[in-house]
Specification:
The complex is a heterodimer of chains A (about 200) and B (about 180). Chain A is α/β, with parallel strands linked by helices. Chain A has 7 helices and 6 strands, in the order αβββαβααβααβα. Chain A is elongated, with a radius of gyration of 21 Å. The longest helix of chain B has 24 residues. Chain B has about 180 residues and is mainly α. Classes of the chains: A alpha/beta (about 200), B mainly alpha (about 180). The interface between A and B is medium-sized, with 24 and 36 residues.
Chain lengths: ~200, ~180
Amino acid sequence: MTDPFDDIRDVSAPPTLLPGVLIALDLADRYLSLDVPIGRVYVAFNRNGISAVTQTPDAAEFEWSFRAQFGRPAFPVTEAPDALLADLHAALAGKKARLEFDLRGLSPFERAVLMKALEIPRGQIRPYAWIAREIGRPKAVRAVGTALAHNPIPLLIPCHRVVRSDGLIGNYGLGGPANKRTLLAWEGVALDPVRGHDRWKAHSV
Amino acid sequence: MDETGLAPLLACDLDAHFEVLVVHFQDRLYRFALRLSSNTEDAEEITQDAFIKAYRALKTYPADRIKAMALRPWLYQIVLNVWKNRVRRKKLPRVEMDGEIVSPAEGPDRQAEATARGEEIMRALETLPGRLRAAVVLRHVEGLSYAEIASVLDQPVGTVKSNVHRGLGALREVRSLEVWT
């Protein structure tokens, strides 16, 4: 016999329900896009602060990669909060900005490395060994490199200002060494043409 | 006890796991709200309100209490209460269903047929008084046990059984008899 209720059992919640609940409870990560010298990046944030900066071909890819990395969804903002936008632009211009960062998933060592990188002013660079020394782990240079490579908030936590002690520019998580060069040049660091594309020298202004 | 395994996670870190709870329960709670309100917009608002109330309540409960919770009947009860309050407050006008009640996986013919049957049973359910409708929907659409429904509706099991029985009886009078045996 047919179950007469079968025909009304197959109902799914509308896709707007989950974001509605999480945003109302301030539990959601939201994101906006930002155009910077290396192209468009996506910036995610939640009530704890900025949670991610990623460069992906489009928003859909960003949502996918965010979920893969953090295990939770990020929803696009309908309108970017003015205060946040102002702080983002100030931070990128090397001015004082009140940005907070959500580094909950990281180890104390990784957090220490990123917080130290945050102290490097725009237009300046430091070697990996400097961070290692500054945080009291002078032998952990390689681990510093790994922690910077996993920086979830590149650009705003300026791991691009950390380079190798031998003059090589080093790798960069946000799109590779080419982007690192672009960002440093944009910030006023002269990259030495004589010693090759991947080399740098400090530029005094 | 909670059959989803979610309660201990929520007890440990509510903020980190609340999304899992929403994902797990949203379809059935929305469906329940839709059966109560007969309107997709109201159903979404009711379900959203219910999740927000659930979160705020859980926020105040000690971990031991959350661990011991039967989440499913508790959440249905919140949806029911949100709906009751809205009806009381607004005396909601009855609005036409817009028919989003069939799986998109079904072919157009079957879907149209199922939609027609679905609408027919929706209309029949709408004729029932709220307490009978809730009892019938929880038992026959949501598949809750009589004990769970008793906890959702805060009624003795005997009353629930009798309301489900009376609700089905009333539906039989509205609809053709043969499928209601």
